[in-house]
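Journal club prep, shared notes

We agreed each person brings one worked example of a sequence with its structure written out as tokens. Mine is M20/M25/M40 family metallo-hydrolase. I'm keeping it raw so we can talk through how to read the token line rather than staring at a rendered picture. Sequence first:
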Amino acid sequence: MTLSERLGTRTDITAGVIITFRTLSRHPHPSHHEEEVGQDYMEFLRGLGLSPVRDEAGNVMANCPATPGREGEPLLILQGHMDMVCAVAPGSGFDPLTHPVTILEQDGYLCTDRRSSLGADNNLGNAAALWVVSRGVSHGPLRFLFTVGEEMGLEGAKVVDPAWLAGAAFLLNTDGFHLGRAIVGSAGGRRECWTRALDTCPAPAGEAWRISLTGGTGGHSGDDIHLGRINPIKVLAAYLKEAPALAVADFTGGSAFNAIPAAAEAVVVGQKPDLGALKEALLPFHATDPNLKLDLSPADRPETVWTAHFRQRVLDLITALGHGVFAMDPQFPGVVGASANLGVIRCEGNYLAIRLFLRAAREEDERAMAEDNRRLAEQAGFSLSVTGYPGWPGDKNNPLAQALDRVYRVQTGRGLEVSAVHVGLEPSVFRAKAPELVMASTGPDILDAHSVDERAPLAGLPDYALLLAGLLEKGVS
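Then the structure, token by token:
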């Protein structure tokens, strides 16, 4: 029986992957809330006749014996993460802790109703791998490994028992985002959380107003950072800095370290704001952020506002902090090498918190950006907490990537692009636990991840499933 006979037509393959994706997406699964989705993975693996196990963190692992005659081949791990960045449209009523995502097939894409992100990152790649194996494709010894907390700094991968990697020769990560690309390296990440106690005084005379900037495209802070999309936090801060007569009572924006902010709002007290300068500041972003909306509305009058000194310190800091591309990768032309994402500002109790995400392929770039931020934030009186993960150095001669390339050439007549990416991938953590493990990453096309516009082209799903199936059937060596 040929591979196409086992998997079916392209329509059959697409339908099978989507059904599996829906199964793995039927429960909410933002980071730190993967209990139910983990059970869904366990149930699916048991349905394959396997005996999955789960560690204390919630990571899931299952060994899958080779099909007859292939028992002596090297062990391959198929790996991905179960959590998602759940971006939410303001005013949508979507609760990421209780509402599963709404999955639609629309205009050639797998997408949502735009109340939330889709979670194709990374459930879609996982779904393709699980569905392919469920169809009886021939393969050598396999191990499935699915982690939690990837979107919070590869947290699940950090606590994976090295025994779960032991004995494997290869690991294929399914979190690659770009069909037609074999990824052999990724950027390190540094999550900076800056906090300072609020300094307030009684609100002055005047009306209260809410200035809202919504509808930004947002997106993945690594995959989309070079596209020049608006950061509403920085734009709104720049406007407020030039309008000192407006007392600031609150300033909120963004949703996560690793998501480009799509919205920001401020509550101010004073005469009705003239938004002319703010409207002008939005003009350069009409192409990148076509759904931007600026709104001014009356707000409930607050009892207190920021002191003038605190206001100046905060706005000076936000406008000075870098956002966007810092440097390109010298090893992989066209790939971003270092960047900063000013992701979140919000009041948390009696403190103001500002969250940034630095990504860098080279340690010296990360150090330079971190030093700039440290100097700026200390001048503004903020204290710092940091978490992070290392980079994964790229190797263009990676044998797993070469095996994928051979399969793809047979299937499509085109070679895979072997490259690095400006996102954090779990192989960067696994390499310290299993130094001899050869790793690569692939994935289906995913557009605008970490935003409510997240979507995956349906036309590419069969190609990705066939690439996985072809690799399993041919083997790596």
